[in-house]
Design a protein that fits this description.
Length: about 160
């Protein structure tokens, strides 16, 4: 694996390290929102975990098993609504465990890929415009991680919890 991909994976792992620190938070904090009317911490972590699960099951695992990817363009609003719903009925410890598990599965499978598999562009046979490229996926989700982590860190630091 080349140095750039390894650096991407290290940045991609930052989410799991952060989620581990959240495991010690009290239920009250998990159910708090960063701002009035915004998602709770539980909802944010559920949202992230469910995206990881989706990309693992529909792309990364399939690539590792030499199967056709099954990614589809999703209705983001519906996906996120279901993530909030999932978070509201799930214990924080389960959300943390799954968030770490799916992120590690993605990383481990990517590390096990050949250079050819890693840099191949995977095309959805039902929608040729839907192309999955692992390096771009990692870059996009590192951005997504930071988009959620930075406000969480600021909020928790302001509450004296980080």
């Amino acid at each position: 694996m080349n140095k750039e991909t390894e650096q991407l994976l290290l940045a991609f792992e930052e989410w799991t390290l952060f989620v581990k620190t959240l495991s010690r938070l009290e239920e009250k904090t998990w159910n708090s929102s960063l701002e009035k009317g915004k998602w709770t911490i539980k909802s944010i972590v559920s949202h992230m975990m469910l995206w990881d699960r989706y990309f693992y099951k529909e792309a990364i695992e399939k690539i590792a098993l030499n199967q056709q990817i099954t990614l589809k363009h999703l209705d983001f609003d519906e996906f996120n609504r279901k993530a909030v719903e999932y978070g509201s009925r799930t214990e924080p410890s389960e959300i943390v465990d799954k968030a770490i598990t799916y992120r590690h599965k993605i990383m481990n499978d990517i590390r096990g890929l050949s250079e050819e598999q890693l840099y191949q562009r995977y095309v959805d046979p039902e929608n040729k415009d839907n192309v999955f490229y692992i390096p771009q996926y990692l870059k996009d989700f590192i951005w997504h991680d930071q988009h959620h982590m930075e406000p969480l860190k600021q909020y928790l630091a302001g509450e004296g919890l980080l």
